[in-house]
Amino acid sequence: MDITFWGVRGSYPVPGPQTVRYGGQTSCVEVRAADGTGLILDAGTGMRALGQKLARESGGAPHVHHVLLSHVHWDHIQGLPFFEPAYIPGTKIAVYALLTASDELHQVIGGITRHEFFPVPLEAAPAQIEYHEVDPGVRMQLDGFDVLPIALNHPYGAVGYRVDADGTSVAYIADTAPFDEVLHKQHFLRGLETLTDEDRSSLDQIRADLVAALVGVDTVVYDTHFLPDEYKRFPHYGHSTPEHALEICGEAKVRRLVLYHHAPSHDDDLMDEVAKSYRAKGAAQGIDVITSAEGMILKVGPP
Ligand SMILES: [Zn+2]
Ligand SMILES: [Zn+2]
Q: What is the pLDDT of residues 283-295, one digit of tens each?
C-alpha cells in the first residue's frame, strides 16, 4: 500500500513562492493498494490534480471512486466540483462522511455547488454521486480495504480513518484538537465552557478509542496544524500540535507519524525548521516523524 499527498494545508489554499516546496493545496490524500485499487481521503483543493491523474490513468473510462471525508469544512470538500472523473459518464463516486447536522449529506456537500456559488450543481454532473453516512467504530469493507472510522474532537465532529490492506495499515487523523475541551458538539464561538463530568468522560472515551484504533498502525497522518505557542492562543479552533500527535502515537506504539494539515501561515522556511526539530523529537521517542509535502509518495509498511 502507498499513499500520495495531493494537498497538505489546512483552512485555505496558499499557493505561491512561499509554499512551493511543501505545497499550498488543501487536504487530499490518495491510498493505493498493491492490486491498484484506491481510496481518496478528503476532497480539499488537492483533489483537482488527483482527478486529472485518475482520468488520465483510466483513459476516460468510467470507474468507481471511494471518497472518505473527515468532515465537511471547506478545506476538506472544495475540490469535489473540480474532480475530473465527476464529468466522465458512467463513473460512480461514493462519498462517505459523518452526519453531524440535521441536513442530509447530499444537501450539505452539494451545497457548495448551489447556483449562488457555482455554475453547475453537483447533481447535474455526469457521474453518479452517492452519499453514505459513517459511524465511528463501525468497520466498512471497500474493495480490498478494511476501513475503521474513528471519532475525533473538532467543532461539530470529524472522523479519522484507519485503513488496513496488503497486510499493513495507515491512519488518517484530520481534523482534531487534543482532548481537553469539548469541541465535537459545538461551534467554538459559543465559548469553551467548564467541563461537566459527562464532558470529561466523553473526551476520555474519544481519546481512548483513538489510541486503541491506532495500536499496530504502521503510518499515522495526523493534524498538526499548530505549533505549541499558536495552539495556546487558539485552543478552540479544533487542531493539534506535533506534541499532541507524538503523545497519541507514542501511546499507540506507532512506527511512523506524518505531520499534516499545515497552517497556511507556515511558509517553506518555517516548515523546514518544523520538519527538522520534530524529526529529532520523534527519534528520541522511537517514532519516525516525516513532514508531509504536496506530491510526496510514501510506502506504507515496515521499511
Ligand atoms: Zn481542516
Ligand atoms: Zn475543520
A: 999 999 999 999 9
